[in-house]
Amino acid sequence: MLQTVVSIVLPVFGLVGVGFVLGWLEFFPEGTGRGLENYLHRFALPLLIFNAVSKANLPDEPNWELWIAYFAGMYMAWALTQISLRSMGHERAIAVIGGFTAAFSNMMLIGIPLVVSAYGDEGLIPLFLLISIHLPFAALLATVMIEGEGAGGKAAAVARTFAGMLRHPILLGLATGLAFNLLDLKLPAVPDRMISWIAESAVPCALVAMGLAVRRTGLGELSGALFLVAFAKLVIHPAIVYGLGHWVFDLPPVWANVVVLIAACPPGLNAYLMALPYPKAVPLASAGVSLTTGLAVITVSVWLTFLLAH
């Protein structure tokens, strides 16, 4: 069991560590990390999703239980963290970003490599079903909660968020892949092979990019709020999702385990990016991403050991 867990987790977080060390050594010119992130988010990851979804055996109808199990757990962890931060005296923007950081898993840069390593292609379908609504719903809710109190301010925030989602490369890759799948369309052999090669580059590049990003954002000052966010993200969030996925809903075993594994992932850079318009919330978000990514080597190993044993 231990050997299996190590063989799954260590390569994933090992490459994150490689990226961190390369950033620490200043091995690449300044801006390389952001350039790699652009390559991933605008090109490689959308093609990875397109390639997988266009060829997958999709379920006949949406699995509402999968979405409810994951997103109910996500919003419960968010709410608990946000309420706790407000009770500690933090202002609204910090509390909202803290809740977002405690609930928003890094499905792309950490989740995909982890799920592929643990469950292979079988685990990608539930993961892509989560990805399809994860970013839009989470980003929309966070933006609306932080933006102006007036209806006009919130309406404008909703409009901006939806407009951004319609142009999001990840969602475009997902939508195109679904269209190809449902219409039974096939690419010619040459472009299909080219896309497959690009898709294969996404996983290792994503992990190195995450390491570079953690080095760039840094840990900052440790605080009670930071440890609260880390505990909520790595322990409370997956625990709630486990209870819903295994005890409340009758999900297929692999699907039930995938949602827990995704909930156990550290937050992605979107937590940091969401905080940028609100300077007081940036230290908590950036430190939250860095601390949880480091601790996740241990906590993800524990969760995966537990899931494989059950």
CATH topology: Na+/H+ antiporter like fold
Q: Please summarize the sheet with the most strands.
A: none
Judged by helices, strands and strand pairing, the structural class is mainly alpha
User: Approximately how much beta-strand content do the residues carry?
Assistant: under 5%
Distance between the termini: 12 Å
What is the percent of helical residues?
over 70%
Question: Count of DSSP helices?
Answer: 13
* Total E-strand runs: 0
Oligomeric state of the chains present here: single chain
Domains (count): 1
Mean pLDDT: 84
Provide the low-confidence segments as ranges.
none
H and E string: HHHHHHHHHHHHH
Q: Under the CATH scheme, which class?
A: Mainly Alpha
Q: C-alpha Rg, in Å?
A: 19 Å
Name the shape in a single word. Answer: globular
CATH architecture classification: Up-down Bundle
Topology:
Elements: H1 2-24, H2 32-55, H3 64-87, H4 92-103, H5 107-119, H6 124-146, H7 151-166, H8 169-182, H9 189-217, H10 224-248, H11 253-263, H12 269-275, H13 282-309
Helix pairs in contact: 1-5, 1-9, 1-13, 2-8, 2-9, 3-4, 3-6, 3-10, 3-11, 4-6, 4-10, 4-12, 4-13, 5-9, 5-11, 6-7, 10-11, 10-13, 12-13
